[in-house]
Amino acid sequence: MLMLMLITVLSLEGALCLPTLTTVSLVLAGTLRHVHTLKLNTDPCGAGGFGNLYALHSALRGAFPALQELCLPAKACLRGLEAFAGSALHTVRVLRYGPGGLRLSHVRSLLRLSQLRHLDLAGEGWGARWHGGDDDVWDDLDAEDAEEGIQAGADAELALGDATLLEVLPQQGEESVPETWALRRLLTSTPPALESLCLPGHLGKIDFVGGRIIRAVTSDSVYRDHSLRFAAVVLLPGLEATGQRLPLLEVERLAGNPAGVTSLLQPHTAFARLLAKCDRVELRLLELRVGSPHLGPEAAATTAMQAVARAMGGGLPEKLRVSGSSWDCTLQLRPRCQGGGGDRVAAADGRGGSGARGAGGAATAAPAAMMKLTAEQVLERAADKMWAVASVQGAASMAEAAMDAYLAAGAVDSKERRAAFYKLQRMDVLLRGPLVWQLTCGPGSGGGGPLLTDWLGSLVAAEPPPPAAAPGRGMDAAARAVGLKISSCSFAPCSPGSAMAVVTCDCPFAALQLHRAAAAAAARKTPSCLQVSATRAGGGGSWRYAIAEVIRELWDDHLSSVPQPAAAMACVAAAGAAAVADGPADGGGGGGGGGPAKSTAAGTNGEPGRAPGGQPAGEAAVGGGGADDDLQVLMRLLPLLQQAQAAVLDMELRSA
């Protein structure tokens, strides 16, 4: 009997319809009176035609008087939960990836649970998921809600917002419209004790205090502009109807082409209106995709970055990722505070105003120096970086030693020879100097590298192939194959009158053969006319990676110009502001007009106002200072990144 009293969690799982699995739990309830958590997983079965969920939940309440947490297989099972009104039940969860959507009937039942503290519709706190292939098994329970779409919005309680919001609804798809209205009803008439709401899809988590939203977090798996518009459609009506503000909005990720991001943040859009209702906005990652020519000129990325900073009241995202068709670069824009309980607050947030970055100091001079940088200088730094890495690696010497071991490893096509083959050094060959520039970028080169192609082929053709012990098959036949086997080559100018090419071969034999031939040619040229080196394949010899590294270093150098005492003070101030934002809101009124920073200058609870992005509102509103310097530097680095990447030409080299 004592052991039965210690059982507090009952988890039932099986391919049974809901009434059958519930009957099993009721049978066990006779001896398990102390269960406070009940988990029912019917995957892949549904309700089996049973529709009286109120009776089912009433039976569960009577059988499990100590029940505090109920985990259900689908949102359709939320119907009838009012049977638990006034009970000990305070947490309701739905199986992860459970089929079906939230409906108004479900919300009506949930609103009757005044004691409800945690509602998890995403299954975050349940280590199980729905695997069933038939997502229609619960449709019979929601049949009576079929007509509750936009038409239901004619109800005065639901018809919140304006035409801007209503225009977004059809974009979500016909199936998601009823769920949108249901969520709006839930957020408008929240159970008074509710503390947290976890949602699948566009919105991730919403926190409450006293029935009011104090924090909303978008999902990190859904990040496109239409997802953020959906978040606005769900959150805005309640805020605008009550005159409340949202203390903190955390956007995990915003990704898209620059034009799409800029369009999303135009003042008339629903998402921009939501930002104007927020005291703080934190954007974890901004991802701008600029890889295709049709996405717009270089200025589009800087315009999008400016639009984001403006929408955040002068703040910046934690990270910025800019990607092209064959490259990407990630910058840590807001270094996080170390310690302090792990609060996700950036030390750089407090760099506005006139404190750390006085006029005439080194920090003020840094942006000016950055403005003078050119794409050619970025390419030169990238070439130097690749060359330095190659010099340290000694890949050519290692390749020669591995080839010697391969040739001495026994008979042709033997097991020993095969084992030695896999130890051969795979490397890329680096060619640098005026000769490379003449063959790729100089007058008469054609700009596409045909002269380089022909020259490389003639070099290898004049050299003997790597020796093998004897003619054979398989790997040794590949070593003795006639011609140069090169898979790709990328090149770019790296200084006035000089260029560098990175040549990738499709096998270690060809790479070593090319390196030997190029080194011999360099020895016959005027000193510095041609330099030859090698780097391990994938070991830092990529133009795309090296350019991104240079841009990252330039940004980090800029950040390091911030005096450490000022950064520490900013960290303390930001952490204190975060603690205030995490507490109850005081219900400040006001509509959504005006800019975000201006609308939050008064603050809450007597504290200084916080602009979106976490900065003090006064600093966001005042021009100049560290935040403006950061944005100014980014406005220069983004075009430099795109120009440098565009200057690199990737080409396939034909076999000689």
UniProtKB/TrEMBL annotation:
Keyword terms of this UniProt record: Cytoplasm, Signal
Low complexity bias: start-end ranges: 597-610
Biased composition (Gly residues): 350-361, 587-596, 611-625
Signal peptide location: 1-17
Keyword Transferase: no
Ranges for region Disordered: 340-361, 587-625
Listed GO biological process terms: COP9 signalosome assembly; protein deneddylation
Gene Ontology CC terms: COP9 signalosome
Membrane is among the record's keywords: no
Official protein name in the record: Uncharacterized protein
Annotated organism of origin: Chlamydomonas incerta
